[in-house]
Structures are given as C-alpha cells and as structure tokens.
Amino acid sequence: AARTCIAVLFIAMNMLMLERMGDPELMSGVVDSEWNLISSAYYTFSTISTVGFRGVTPNTVLGKIMTMVVVCGGITFAILAARSFSGIVMLQSTGGGNLDIPTGHRHVILAGTASIETVKELILELLHPDHALDAEDLHL
Q1: What distance in Å separates the CA atoms of residue 65 and residue 39, rounded to the nearest whole number?
Q2: Are residues 19 and 59 in contact, defined by beta-carbon separation less than 8 angstroms?
Q3: Shortest CA distance to 56 belongs to which of 23, 16, 7?
Q4: Distance between CA 137 and CA 113 in Å, rounded?
Q5: Quick check: pTM over 0.90?
Q6: CA within 20 to 30 Å of 53's CA: 6, 113, 123, 134, which one?
Q7: What's the whole-number average pLDDT of the chain?
Q8: Each residue of 97-121: b (16+ CB within 10 Å) or e?
C-alpha cells in the first residue's frame, strides 16, 4: 500500500510540474486547435478507460501525453492484477497451491481425510525411539 501511495504521489507531482511548466515552443501551436491528433488520442484514452475527465483537465500537450501513459499503465496493472487473482482462485478451487518450506527444516504434511487412529499411528511411528536421531529437527 505504501508503494502505491508513493507512486500516486510521484505521478501527481510530475503532472503538476508538466502543467505548470507549460508547453515547449515546439508544441505551443498544437493546443490552439480544438481537435487535433493529441486531443483526439487524449479523448479516446479517457473515454476507453471510463475516466471521463471533467473539471480538472490538462491543458498542455505534455500533460495530455502524461495522462495517456498513466491510463495505459493503470489498465495494464488492472489486467495483470485480475489475471493473477483469477489464477489464485482457479488454483485454490482445484485444491492446488504452492508451499514454500524454509530450508534446513523437515516437515511432515498430512493431506486429505485421515482417521484419528491413522494420525495417531503415524505420530507414534515418527516419535518411536528407533527414529529418535531422525526426528530431532522434525516439525509436525
């Protein structure tokens, strides 16, 4: 969450800087016409992303380009997050998953539906004096 807040603050500060600096002379004539390639692309991106800017809109070409980059990044992030989430849901629904066990430890993992008698026999076998040296670092 902290990284997201920092990223949003960083992008907002860049947007403020671009808008306050104004357009360079090379791009100064682009804003004068109402519909041009930059304005059309900006309108398309804001419409596709369902943002639909109203009150606060960038007036400079660089501000509009920055907005298109941010919207593309946001859409990409949303797609990747949805893909990751759906993968986790599918993995969990099939009973699969990964278990990361720290190295240097030995574990016994019981899976499925075992009777109490079966679990009792397993524990007694693991803790039997014949296995004492093998069971020193065993985690149940």
Answers
A1: 9
A2: yes
A3: 16
A4: 26
A5: no
A6: 6
A7: 75
A8: eeeeeeeeeeeeeeeeeeeeeeeee
SS3 sequence of 57-80: CCCCHHHHHHHHHHHHHHHHHHHH
Tokens for 113, please give them.
């539906």
Amino acid in position 11: I
Tokens of 31: 């804003």
Residue type, 107: H
Of 79, 93, 90, 14, give the one whose Cα is nearest residue 49. 79
Q: Which two tokens stand for residue 119?
A: 């679990």
Mean pLDDT of 12-39: 75
Amino acid at 90: M
Tokens of 112: 């499925």
Residue given tokens 């803790």 in the structure block: 127
Residue type, 9: L
